[in-house]
Amino acid sequence: MDLKSTIKRILDEQVDILTNPGVVDPELRITPTKPKSDNTTPKSDNTTSDSKKTEKIDVGYVDIPQILIDAYGIELVKSVYESQGFEVTDDNKVTGWGLPLPKQFMKAPSGNQKFGSPRGNNVHDACDYSADEGTPIYATKSGNVNYIETKEQNLKCGNGIGIGKNNFSTIYCHMKNKPSLSIGEEVSIGQKIGEVGSTGHSDGPHLHIKTKSKSGPFDNWAEIYSKLV
Q1: What pLDDT shows up at residue 172?
Q2: Is residue 33 scored above 60 in pLDDT?
Q3: What is the pLDDT of residue 57?
Q4: Region 187-203 average pLDDT
């Protein structure tokens, strides 16, 4: 059996791990929640403890079998995985996720750009990545279009698109132009879906990206992208 056939067989065996949460060892994640004040029943002056909800999530990483690396070398094996639409991390794990922007724009969000930062009476449940206007935006996971927004609707996202598959759904906001895709249309991982802009509630060109699992939004940077850059 040739290398591509061998990897395809392994991917078929690992498909549940690569597409569904909770199959491999999960990592802890924090869902940002605004602490609620209680003016009627003060319990203690010591209210600085972490009141955030902690849950488990897994975005689907599996190890490349060592037998393949030994037989063919990591570079060849990686190239075959990538040719099948999968990303390979530096520690030789494979995932069905990709980066939404070219790597030079994937710096860890800071300040009010990061997940969980204060936003008035709420918190930022997404990640913002500054990039030049016109920078290509890529689908981070394959799926189907489940949401479209245009700047004419005068909503926060501006020109935006949502793509979902299984238990995950990702929305990409502030795009330069109206999405060219239609609701229900199939999208592949790594496919260009738009360009960075500053439509909607935006103070400069950037990509606002939010991914939800069945248990709510999670930190794209901490859970996915930091492992791919």
Answers
A1: 97
A2: no
A3: 55
A4: 92
Distance CA(224)–CA(229), nearest Å, equals: 10
Output the pLDDT for position 66: 86
3-state DSSP assignment of residue 66: helix
Q: How many other C-beta atoms lie within 10 A of the C-beta of residue 174?
A: 26
Rounded (10°) CA dihedral 140, 132, 185, 149 = 110
Beta bridge partners of 186: 144
pLDDT category of residue 85 using cuts at 50, 70 and 90 = low
Residue 112: φ, ψ to 5°:
-80, 5
Angle at 106 between CA 181 and CA 24, to 5 degrees: 80
What is the assigned CATH class of domain 103-218?
mainly beta
Map tokens 């439509």 to a residue. 199
DSSP 73-111: -HHHHHHHHHHTT-EE-TTSEEES---SS-GGG-PPP-G
Domain boundaries, the chain: 103-218
- Residues 136-148: pLDDT tens digits? 999 998 899 999 9
108, 110, 112, 113 alpha-carbon torsion, rounded to 10°: -20
Q: How many Å separate Cα 41 from the centre of its chain?
A: 40
Strand (E) or helix (H) holding 138: strand 136-138
CB atoms under 10 Å from CB of 167, counted, come to 14
